[in-house]
Amino acid sequence: MELVRGLHNLRPRHRGCVATIGNFDGVHAGHQAILKRLRAHSVRLGLPGCVVIFEPQPREYFAPQAAPPRLTRLRDKLALLEGQGVDRVLCLAFNHRLRELSAEQFVQQVLIEGLGVKHLEVGDDFRFGCDRSGDFAFLKKSGERHDFTVEAANTVAESGDRISSTRLREVLAEGDFPLAERLLGRPFSITGRVLHGQKLGRQLGAPTANVQLKRLHAPLKGVYLVSVELDGITHKGAANIGTRPSVEGDGQAHLEVHLLDFHGDIYGRRITVVFHEKLRDEKRFDSLDDLKFAIQEDFAAARAHWGL
């Protein structure tokens, strides 16, 4: 899969494709249905399939602190898109210049002059352009003028409710990981590099891997049963994700993972943390002794769950 960053990096060879546009946060089952249709049109027309995404995501640009937590960071999103058979990703910097484009300008500069789109596949609620003035009807009329076809992907539902990134965040907040897996088509996980932290876990008898989140906000908060994928081997464990209210820190979300019965050095390594069940909410403890006792109870619950 080819990644093109910005319109200025498009070349004549990139013209002529079938495309879709969106955040694709989570690359969930609803997104996968759109990508399946994209592949079908790609084969039918003999053209590459291109996904247009934005960094940062628009809501992160307009109101960073109020933006919803990301389900997938860019690196993981790209890997998931590649796994869905996408040929090319055009990643547009969402900035003042892009936000000021009218719907007509966006179509002309991105779809016509940039990509030479022959077919466009969009979600049924897709909006674009300055003040979100562009919609499916606008795209249909643009396609008739500029000789490309437009199709709206049908809503994909699970248990009678539309699958969306918003719904997935709600399900994760409720700790319903079996439902989250059905919405995603895979277990929910977070991948990141293990960084050096405050080493407080060692003092508490609970050495943890401090996993880089690279998110403005975390999609989960609390203590969870997890498994960790490292070098093709699955390790059982427990994880805390949150702002660590009992410890003086930076106020940012952190993911700290304890691997049960593991004693290796994994600093600098990338690991995938798969979430299975919520043990409890994150809470503030009055003393480090109380925190240490709670952590040991969490580990005991994890051991009992995993049969260790």
From TrEMBL:
Keyword field contains DNA-binding: no
Keyword annotations from UniProtKB, A to Z: ATP-binding, FAD, Flavoprotein, FMN, Kinase, Multifunctional enzyme, Nucleotide-binding, Nucleotidyltransferase, Transferase
Keyword Transferase included in the entry's annotation: yes
GO biological process: FAD biosynthetic process; FMN biosynthetic process; riboflavin biosynthetic process
Domain Riboflavin kinase intervals: 183-307
Function: Catalyzes the phosphorylation of riboflavin to FMN followed by the adenylation of FMN to FAD.
Listed name of the protein: Riboflavin biosynthesis protein
